[in-house]
Amino acid sequence: MLNASTSHASTPSQRTPAPTPGYQPETQGVKTIRSIRGMNDILPPETSLWQYLEKQVASLLAEYGYREIRLPVIEHTELFQNSIGESTDIVEKEMYSFSDRNGDSLTLRPEGTASCVRALCQHHLAPALQKLWYQGPMFRHERPQHGRQRQFHQLGVEVFGVASAEVDAELLLLSARLWRRLGLEKRIQLQLNSLGDGESRQHYREALVSWLSAREAALDDDSRRRLRNNPLRILDSKNPQTQSLLEDAPVMADFLNEEAAAHFDRLREILDANGLVYTVNHRLVRGLDYYNRTVFEWVTEALGAQGTVCGGGRYDTLVQQFGGKATPAAGFAAGLERLVLLLQQLQQSPLEEPLADVYFTAVGDAARVCAITLAEAVRDQLDGYNILVNCEGGSFKSQLKKADKSGARLAVIIGEREVAARSAGIKPLRGESAEQFSVAQSELAARLQGLLA
Ligand code: ATP
Ligand code: MG
Predict the structure, then answer these.
(1) Dihedral sign (CA 14, 15, 20, 26)
(2) Torsion angle, CA of 417/419/423/426, rounded to 10 degrees?
(3) Using omega within 30 degrees of 0 as the cis cutoff, is the peptide bond preceding 240 cis?
(4) How far apart, in whole angstroms, are the C-alpha atoms of residue 139 and residue 109?
(5) With bands split at pLDDT 50, 70 and 90, how would you rate the model's confidence at 9?
């Protein structure tokens, strides 16, 4: 085992020169290896919050008829280059790509839609209706900040095979319901836009490029570069000067063809009928190239600069682009770290669940064997309760302190006397009647069940 405390033992003179990132200075010949920057451990009790979130997600998606798909974490690099787009931030500077032992270029997935579409084509699942979700780690080489990691986790939800605005609306309604279930509905707001279809987008792009070209001198460097290779992304610029310039720029809404405009109207009609509040944001374009028609983001003001909790939209041409049958599609991805941060800001956090319901204490070698065996027998009969056995030893007094700290409602006490008499002590740890009493070992499970019910 590596001892973390050794990393603090160095004197100031030992601390220079600066250690290689990822390593602490050598102390007594032992190098303490640390996790990679931006790739964090999630420790208990925070893991309980993750499990709670994951459980809410899985049950809500089942209620809407979505099924889970599990995808590899590594894919061929070209999968992402071809889908996300060559001139996006992700492909240009955020991917973890490497050559494997065969010399193939592989990439740790930066998002899940590309893999999902690949799987759909590979297993001939299109163009039939598919309602899928997945969840897991994604990797992007970004500057780590509050709510921004290099390994982070996304929930992805994708629908294939239906082009209607009803699908877009359902994706938004189910995400709104998820925020409500989590108690986050007041903190997350919906922004909506339509990017139109291929032709209308082309017309808009031309109008935007000519408008911006006339003002090129006022653009930041990144935006000037994008003017040539990805002009719509300029709308997404974080540069305040560029943003204020864009206030008078042409908007996509004026360029939508009839079908795309009708699709957007229909979506808004369904959202309105359901009382789902949103803002139309004409500058919302999203970071990935594959979207058309509907795009949306769920945003929060509670996480500083990392304000987008969830983003998605329609991507009707991506499946075909991968060689599959023409299959309309829509979906979204939510950042689980950002949701966990929001949950942590809530007053009552579900973290406070006790570790144990019943805690076994035992003193003496024979008593400890007896306690483990009894606990196994109790677990056979009591489903859904947490049964802990003290394995550290020590006096009854110290073990009962640990029992109390575990949050258990009942302690079971086994000493030499109980072993000999085939009995067990039960001590209620919460409430008024804290008197210990004795039961036959053969009745222990039934008595515990009665007390816990
Ligand atoms: P951002 O603008 O914050 O970089 P993005 O547009 O790159 O987000 P998407 O590719 O749309 O993000 O991913 C969907 C969601 O995944 C985001 O809304 C966010 O909640 C989460 N996410 C993206 N990148 C990170 C990251 N590096 N760390 C934590 N969460 C992330
Ligand atoms: Mg990003």
Answers:
(1) positive
(2) 80
(3) no
(4) 6
(5) very low
- Provide the H-helix boundaries in 274-364: 318-321, 336-345
Count of CB atoms situated within 10 Å of the CB of 382: 17
| Distance (Å) of CA 375 to CA 380, 389, 414 | 9, 7, 11
Quick count: other Cβ atoms within 10 Å of Cβ 5?
A: 9
Tokens 């798909």, residue? 69
CA of 335 to the centre of ligand 1 (A): 6
Q: Which ligand is nearest to the CA of 238?
A: 1
Share of the chain above pLDDT 90, in %: 82
**How far does the centroid of ligand 2 lie from the alpha carbon of residue 294, in Å?**
19
Q: What residues contact residue 206 under an 8 Å CB cut-off, 6+ apart?
A: none
By DSSP bridging, strand 410-414 and strand 423-428 are antiparallel
- Say whether pLDDT at 23 is over 80: no
User: Tokens in use for 108?
Assistant: 């740790």
Residue closest to 333 by CA, chosen among 301, 295, 284? 295
Instruction: Give CA angle at 53 (51, 56), nearest 5°.
Output: 110
Query: Which residue's CA is the closest to the ligand 1 atom numbered 8?
Result: 308
Q: Are 281 and 247 in contact (CB under 8 A)?
A: no
Does residue 358 have a pLDDT over 60? yes
Residue 437 has pLDDT above 50, yes or no: yes
Q: Read off the amino acid at residue 139.
A: F
Both tokens of 15, joined, read 């601390």
**Sign for the pseudo-dihedral over CA of 80, 84, 89, 92:** positive
Instruction: Name the strand (E) or helix (H) holding 251.
Output: none
CA–CA separation, 411 vs 359, rounded Å? 5
d(CA 44, CA 355): 11
What are φ and ψ of residue 278, in 5° steps? -150, 165
Q: How many angstroms does the Cα of residue 218 sit away from the middle of ligand 1?
A: 28
**Taking each helix axis from N to C terminus, what angle separates 444-452 and 365-381, rounded to the nearest 10 degrees?**
60
Cβ(338) – ligand 1 distance below 6 Å: yes
